[in-house]
Design brief:
Helix content of chain A: 40-55%
Distance between the termini of chain A: 19 Å
CATH class of the largest domain in chain A: Alpha Beta
Radius of gyration of chain A: 26 Å
CATH superfamily of the largest domain in chain A: GAF domain
Number of domains of chain A: 3
Oligomer: homodimer
Shape of chain A: elongated
Order of helices and strands of chain A: HHHEEHHHEEEEHHHEHHEEEH
Number of strands of chain A: 10
Number of helices of chain A: 12
Largest interface: A-B, 36 and 35 residues
Largest sheet of chain A: 5 strands, antiparallel
Chain lengths: 362, 362
DNA sequence: TTTAGCACTCGTTGTGCCGAAGTGCTAATC
DNA sequence: GATTAGCACTTCGGCACAACGAGTGCTAAA
């Protein structure tokens, strides 16, 4: 049923027009409504024939006999891959984007949240931001701060610059000197290696070096372990959920519920995103999404990387009939900006340089 | 129309029965269906009369002439204040609650998240957790860690034990000694006082003490200021939004959208919660909620306090016909547990001691 | 004071009908 | 051969209408 033939330019024009109008009004588009289109100087009958062929080829679908056509997933895919017109951010939009990012926000957390908010505001879709868990990262540097007699604060600087802190209770009183000692020993023996390699011999060496305060090592290592290897329950945040409801695709309660339920399973989403391409905007249309209740939706996202590691992602979720052009551009712009701000390799995008680089994925 | 008269015991029983059955099935309850109730050995006609009077008094409403009655907001209020039967957490539920809390989680953030999750799981309603912003807290103790030549990490221990960190770029190379110096000076001059009191003279004194590294003070103070006085954009999190959709109250898309939209305005919700009573479970029924789109919903929450300050809150949001008994008990149990864990004055609740202490609020 | 009975109300459900939109196909036209 | 006009056909959505049922209020009897 689906023949893989190159589309004629005319078919492309028609397909593009169909997708565009369907995206904007959500209704099946009929042959007649296309005759008003400037690009297409054809009668409705001709268009009907072309549409029939496009359907034959798999790019269009008909909800029922006497309705217009809507793009199939394959149609959207083709549109995204080949027909997308470049969206140009307006000056106002760029100002909005930048002002959001300029807000004192050196920390990734806050950057992601801000980005999420502005994405929702600009695109009108629900947006998401992800901070994936670090898989047992190693600590670059320790610092031990004595809070009071029996409480220490461990500060851990992790690989990507992330900072974690954790309070640690000590079995007995410790003084500043002991804290400093602990700090030195931790930096000496533990820092720089993944936690799996902190084996018994390593710990014993550390204890030896601690001298009379050896008892601190046990608690400290447990504390470190708990802090950095905690699952961090895959932080996924949604912003603007109410936006979903403006599309009739989600007025079916069961479908909406399914989607929301799926989005609650944050780990799944996060692992999906973590496995994606890091160098482009990923567009997962309909059943390209692994999770079943998302098969009616489209997820557009791009990862944030630092030193080659994925440290997060931002994206947008909405119906398949999505303003791809605008969404992709926005996601791309923001992710580049963030990458730039956190000191990644990519420069922050200039105001005129928007190259979404949207490649297919399925 | 609403006469303030004491209800007869029989009226109470009937009202209670009505609320209970309406809560469980969501439909208007008719006089006949109540005759099967053991507590009420009356004919439907008698019950009808009582119901008519209860409606007269304002406790019940009739969606339309030939439907049963549903509780009015006032009915719910009375139910919550006077008729609520003690819900007894089952052993299994307590296990669930505790296991969630035992998970290594000394940090409030994680505690709140966990609590939220388990609340949703146990009650079946959407739950929320709030971490309000600290209004310009003062730093108890500073620690300065030299990351590399031109980067320092400031660690700030705030009043309630919260730890904040922030990277700070230095204008020129600094060594360990300078970092240590900065730490001492910050602890000496800045620690312990609210940021408003860090005035020019204070800063100058600090700079004087810094000697050749005086230039660090400016950046440091700006950095501190940015970090601790940042609005922290009122952190409100929802868990289990999909749960909302199982109630027919929210199958009306516009209403649902309104509610979700309102919940997106996190600041409003947070400020509402921050202004609430700290020593009991707050129950805001329908129009007792300040925000308009929440007027069809009920919000049950309790604040988490530490040293008398509100440091967070957990709660549940759902339709007015909510399983108040279970929800209130769960929220109370969890909030007490958390208060206990973060070292508040209240002891964590024992397994048999559930005293929700639900007072009216409007 | 309670209850049985009955007329009444009103929402819900199911049915049939009609119009609108849009198609596919055929035959005429360029 | 490609395009177009015309027409019969299909399907959905909305509307009116009737039948039904649940539940009430009221009256009169127990």
């Amino acid at each position: 049923m689906v023949k893989k033939v190159e589309l004629t330019p005319r078919k492309k024009t028609i397909l593009k027009a169909i997708v565009n109008t369907h995206i904007s009004n959500g209704e099946p588009v009929g042959s007649k409504s296309l005759t008003t289109n400037q690009q297409i100087a054809l009668s409705s009958a001709t268009i009907r024939n072309e549409m029939a062929e496009l359907e034959e080829m798999g790019y269009l679908e008909q909800p029922h006999t006497s309705a217009g056509r809507i793009p199939s997933e394959m149609g959207y895919r083709f549109y995204v891959d080949n027909l997308l017109q470049q969206y140009k951010l307006t000056a106002g939009e760029i100002v909005k984007l930048n002002s959001m990012l300029k807000a004192k926000a050196a920390e990734l957390d806050r950057l992601l949240d801000n980005a999420s908010r502005v994405m929702t505001a600009l695109t009108g879709y629900t947006s998401l931001s992800v901070k994936p868990q670090n898989i047992s990262p190693s600590v670059i540097k320790f610092s031990v701060i004595r809070v009071d007699g029996i409480t220490l604060l461990l500060v851990m600087i992790l690989e990507a610059g992330t900072v974690k802190t954790s309070y640690m209770s000590t079995p007995s009183e410790v003084d500043d000197e002991a804290a400093l000692k602990l700090q030195n020993v931790l930096n000496h023996h533990i820092a720089g290696q993944p936690m799996e390699q902190v084996t018994l011999p390593v710990m014993m060496a550390a204890e030896r070096e601690m001298g009379e305060h050896a008892f601190l090592i046990q608690s400290a290592i447990k504390c470190i372990y708990d802090t950095i290897s905690e699952p961090e329950h895959a932080d996924l945040r949604l912003e603007g959920i109410d936006r979903l409801l403006q599309y009739r695709e989600y007025s079916d309660v069961m479908r909406l519920r399914g989607l929301l339920g799926a989005l609650e399973k944050k780990d799944e989403i996060v692992s999906m995103i973590s496995g994606a391409d890091t160098d482009k905007v990923n567009v997962l249309i309909g059943s390209e999404n692994a999770v079943d209740p998302m098969k009616d939706s489209t997820l557009v996202f791009k990862t944030i990387t630092q030193d080659g590691h994925i440290v997060g992602a931002i994206g947008v979720i909405g119906p398949c009939r999505m303003d791809y052009s605008k969404v992709i551009t926005t996601v791309d712009y923001l992710s580049r900006s963030i990458n730039g701000l956190i000191g990644g390799a990519l420069p922050p995008p200039g105001e005129n340089e928007n190259d979404p680089n949207n490649g297919g994925s399925s």
